[in-house]
Amino acid sequence: MSDSKKDPVLVVLQLSGGNDYFNTVIPYTDPLYRDNRPAVGVADDRIIPIDDKVGFHPSLAPVKGLYDQGKVAIIHGVGYANSPRSHFRSMDIWHTCEPDKLGTEGWLGRATREIDPRKENVVTTVSFGPSLFRALALPGVPVACVDDLENYGLLTGIQEEEQRMKILDRFARLYSPAIGSGAVMDYLGQTGLDSLKGADILKVAPEKYSSSVEYADTTIARKLKGIAQIHMADLGTRVFYCDHGSFDTHSNQVGMHDTLWKDVSEGVEDFFEDLKEHGVGDNVIMLLFSEFGRRVHDNGSGTDHGAAGAAFVIGEPVAGGQYSEYPSTKPEDLQQGDLVPNLDFRGLYSTILDEWLGLDAVPIVGGNFEKPRFLR
Length: 376
Description:
alpha/beta, 3-stranded antiparallel beta sheet, 12 strands
C-alpha cells in the first residue's frame, strides 16, 4: 500500500476490443516476429527499443518517456487458461473474475463495497462512458456515471432525464441476455438510479479546475481530463474507470492500431503531466488492460482474436520495468496459433487490491494467485 498519507486512487483504462500485444510490445530481435507478421509487422526503424529483446510500437513514444522515468510497469503474458476468444465472454471474465461460470458481481464493485461499506460517499467510484462497466456493477453499491464531464455535465438533473434513461437502457440491454431481465431490473431498482445521484456532486470539478496542460481533442483525452478534474476537486473518489477502442483490428490494422495507441499514449502523457503540475500524482496509479491479445500470424490485413496480452501499470508509485515473461513464440508452444498466458490476470488485480488499495484480494478475485511486485 502507498506510504502517502493520501488515500490511494486507481484509474482503469480498458483497451476494448483485444489489443495486439505482439505489435505493442514487440519482440523485435526474434526472427519469428518477422515470419509471423508479413503484412502488419512494424518496421525495425520505427520500433522504440526497450531493451535488446523487446520494443514499443512507435505510437507509444509518450509512454516510453514515462517508462524511462521509471513510472511504467509492463506486465507480460497476462490472461487466463482456455481463452474463449469472444469479446463479450472474455471481458466478462476480466470484469467478474469468474472464468469458469457466469459472474454477476464486478471485481471493482466488490472493492468499492469494501472501501466504503456504509456508502458514505456516493462518488467513491466514477465510471466514464455511456454505460456502466460490469467491473463496477454490484447491487447496492452506487457508482457515479459520467458521459462527458465538459459537454453534458453529469447525468442526474431533470434536464438530462433522456440521457440518463439512455444509460440505464444500454445497461439493461447489455446484461439482460447474460443474467436475465429480472436480475437486471433488480439491479436498476436497487442501485441504477441511485448510483447516478452522486454525479451532482461532481459538477463542481470543472469549476475548480485550471491547468496549463492542453489535452488533445480525442475521446480518451477528454475522459482522462475529466478524471483529472474530479481527482483534483478532492471529492474522495478512489476508483475511476474508462475505456477506449475498439482495438478489434481484423483488417486495416496498420493505420488503425497506430491511431488508437497515439490517442491513448498522448492522453495518458497529458493526464500524468496534469497531475504532476498540480502535485497530486503521488497517490494515483493507472491500469491499462485488454480482454485478450491477438493471433500471432497476421491474416494479410490485420490480426484475429488471440489469448495472452500485455497490461501496463503507470504512476509515480510504480516500480517501473518488465514483469512476468514474454510468452514463447515457438510454433510448438502456441495454442491455436496464440501466445499462451503465463500470468493469471487475477494476480495482477491482487497486487493492486492488496498492495495499493489495502484490501484483502482473495474474496474479491476468488483465490490466491501469483502477484507481480510492481509497486514501490
